[in-house]
Known about the structure:
Blueprint: H1 2-7, H2 13-20, H3 24-32, E1 39-40, E2 46-47, H4 50-65, H5 70-102, H6 126-133, H7 137-145, E3 152-153, E4 159-160, H8 163-178, H9 183-222, H10 229-247
Antiparallel strand pairs: 1-2, 3-4
Helix pairs in contact: 4-5, 5-9
Amino acid sequence: xxxDTKQRPVYVISIAAELVDMHxxxxxxxxxxxxxxxxxxxxxxRLYSERDIEHLREIRRLTQELGVNLAGVEExxxxxxxxxxxxxxxxQEIERLENEIRAQVALPLPAPGQQLDPKxRPVYVISIAAELVDMHxxxxxxxxxxxxxxxxxxxxxxRLYSERDIEHLREIRRLTQELGVNLAGVEExMRLRFELDANRGxxxxxxxxxxxxxxxxxxxxxxxPAPSPDAESAGEEPQDQDQDGAxx
Length: 248
């Protein structure tokens, strides 16, 4: 798989530092902070993968181009690692399902996968949402313009916020007030959160579709009619007649 190649630890720290134009000590600091997760050789030497290099370049972009502080970078990279882990888990699940197809193992019917998650149901008008997260309604409008939240709309175009929107707003407040992350950093973090939520939904639906496909195939296979005894006998009659004729 392509992801296996990207995760393969191949670069020693001096080469990795050169590739991303950083000092090796900076890479060690980022590892201690949990921003990157290099592998180790049998001799305990740090070895960096292509994915580690991508993460280091993203850290440099966040800090140097966007001015995101270290707390914000930690949030971004934590979400990025979650996305990476989810992709790995998804690929492992697909491989497991493919093995089950080959082994002709039937799976139970999944629950309908296309229903709206209750957390995404838009129910709160802006005044209630603002009260729930202790913010001014105008702040919620600003965050919407920045793409940090995406409330739904009623048929009359009234903003309606879901439980997930409330969670996102509380997370924005934590990032800005407790961690001191600037707006550029918050935008990056929320973009990753939306991507994470969307990917999780897509992967769950994809797995459900595959399970449904396996179940339907197995059902069709089981329902194939068995050969009738008459058909089997018909296939044997010519041989029996020849034998009878030989006796005569």
